[in-house]
């Protein structure tokens, strides 16, 4: 009987707004963005939760007291997937597993990476919006999305749209202001472009990256007309290899140019040593990933020929 009552209670929650409070803590569930923003303006120090996998560590390890928690998993305005104007538009709270079927058709390399991102259970609740908002320098989705020239839509103090590459300011800091929230992520669909994702970690699955590299671009007549190289774990934020990109743009896709790019990428980053990898290791791996990219793309070209 208790189980039936609990199930009935949970079914009711999924259809209405919820506000549970104690003396100093508040927990909110909203069905739409309008109601969420209305309550958001009444409080400060808000915490947004979808999967809660990253936030949980703040409580268990850092003993942080979360005073105002907003659960976004039932908010219809933050849970959607649409293809419009040659963009894949994803609600910020949409579970990763719901996005995968779309990515497998549009960017299979991106989808493959997500299978290493976390277990089935984690992917059922974790969201790209949460991964971006946590502003981790080793977040796996941010380098790929920056490489694809993605944008995010932010709501709160009005509505604004920015390129994801401009979202991260410094370690764990973003351009999000008080009472603002990521509404959606807009990923351009570039059918003629290539995308490569490389995650290096101590374990193959369910592990934090030591370094992550995403390479996106367009080759015409064996030359790089567009090229974006973005790394996680190489700086305090996900960062482009600006000098390497500049060198490769409009250059031929040949061994000599890749070898030179491997030298230049050492000028793009000054990585730190930590428990996951040394600075020397990270620098060497960044070079090795460019080599891997060259060999993979060369092999693909030969197979097409």
Automatic annotation (TrEMBL):
The keyword Flavoprotein applies. The keyword Chaperone does not apply. SMART domains: CO_deh_flav_C. Keywords: FAD, Flavoprotein, Oxidoreductase. SUPFAM superfamilies: CO dehydrogenase flavoprotein C-terminal domain-like (SSF55447), FAD-binding/transporter-associated domain-like (SSF56176). One of its GO terms (molecular function) is FAD binding. Residues 20-192 form the FAD-binding PCMH-type domain. This is FAD-binding PCMH-type domain-containing protein.
